[in-house]
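Chain X:
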Amino acid sequence: MFGYVTANLQELDKAQKLRYNAVYCGICRQIRERANQLSRLGLSYDMAFLALLLMSLYEPEEISGDRACALHPIRPKKWVDNEFVRYAADMNVALAYYNALDDWHDDKKLTARLMAGAYGKHLAEIEARYPRQCRAIERCIRELNALEQENCDNPDTCANCFGTLMGELLVYHQDMWAPILRDMGMALGRFVYLGDAARDYRRDKKKHKYNPYLAMGLQEDPRRWREYLVLAMAKCTQEFEKLPLVQDKALLDNILYSGVWTHFRQKKQEERH
């Protein structure tokens, strides 16, 4: 259910692409430093959005540089670092752990078990740094698994569960912005969950796997599902616009107003072929 909250690269100018990739590389670099090389394989652009949002809101001091790495050994890549880049790196590892564990339980993929082991080595350290967020991740993933096992026929119940998870991730400080960020994350999480259900409908039906729309007994209905997504993203952007963002605002706008829809359409097209 990750990988949706990405930029529409075709609409970014050169400076925005450089900034976006520098944040992404900064997170990747910190995953290596705070976890291990193998954990970098679970890196998601969703976490670049998380870091950019918090950086824009709180405007921390940054350090930056450029260097080659094991994944890009020839050409140096620019990176940035600050407390929110490091936070995004930790959240990426925690989310990747539970995602890999879920894949192992569902499909018994050996690679998923190996990756869960790689991520899990550093989970205790991350939980010590961010207990609230990690408790929310563990609790919401557990509740989602239970709902899926029960063949829950209410998409809102599952979507709200994942929305709660996203809401807690967006809240870094328990300050005046926390309620807005939590509501924004709830709506964004609903969009991701419902979008994932719509995208995977045919595959889940073929493989007899859980899907909330299948549990409802619905036939494929792209128009209806798009309406759900429009409502969720409208709520997300409504809360987003309440934040006093200046730095990287255009890049964040690109992600929420264009990137998430571009990615959803691409994934739907891939599912049909």
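Chain Y:
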Amino acid sequence: MKIIMASQGFTTDEMEQEVAKIVGKPASEMDIAIINESMFEIDSGRSKRWCIRELSNIEKHIGGRIDFVNVRAHSKDEIRKRLLNADLTYIVGGKQHVYAQLFHETNLVDLLKEAAENRVLMGTSAGSIVLGKQIESENFWKQKYQMSLQEIGYPDLGFVPFNIIPHYLREDHKEWTKEFFNAVLADNPFPVYAVTDAQAVTYVDGKIGFIGGEPDVFGK
């Protein structure tokens, strides 16, 4: 299984180079399939300029075919064909919790796992979080999202034995400090890696690695 959990995607040349190593093909020749449904669930009052920037970075760094997968519109056979015809499946971020519901309701968890086992699966932000293990700390959900763990309708997919905090220490996330996460994740029974927009955590054949330097880690 080959999984890359990033914060903001291809923000650096190092990200391009390290992803290419995992894929086993130069980025100039890499074909990519993009899943982007979660972005459409974000409130209409919030600008989507960030998504244009992220997609622009894909176009800048990836030289092969760029495809989009419409999870609700395409048949399961069509989705499988598009995922396996790509070297890299890329799940764009967006609204938290949307992907878990979407992938469970459309019965696509097995196809995503197949893509991770036979190709490479990469997520950013919410698209990364859904690939990880469900964070169990009640204090985390209460303090960060003003909700309880029991209110989450569908669990994250748990393809890897950890999860991430994206956009760590970014200007618009200043309130979520190292001290904050130390407190709210103290009782979480597995690691949660806090990654900046230039970092990612990789999981290749059971081995954890880092792009952009080793991130801060919280939980047990």
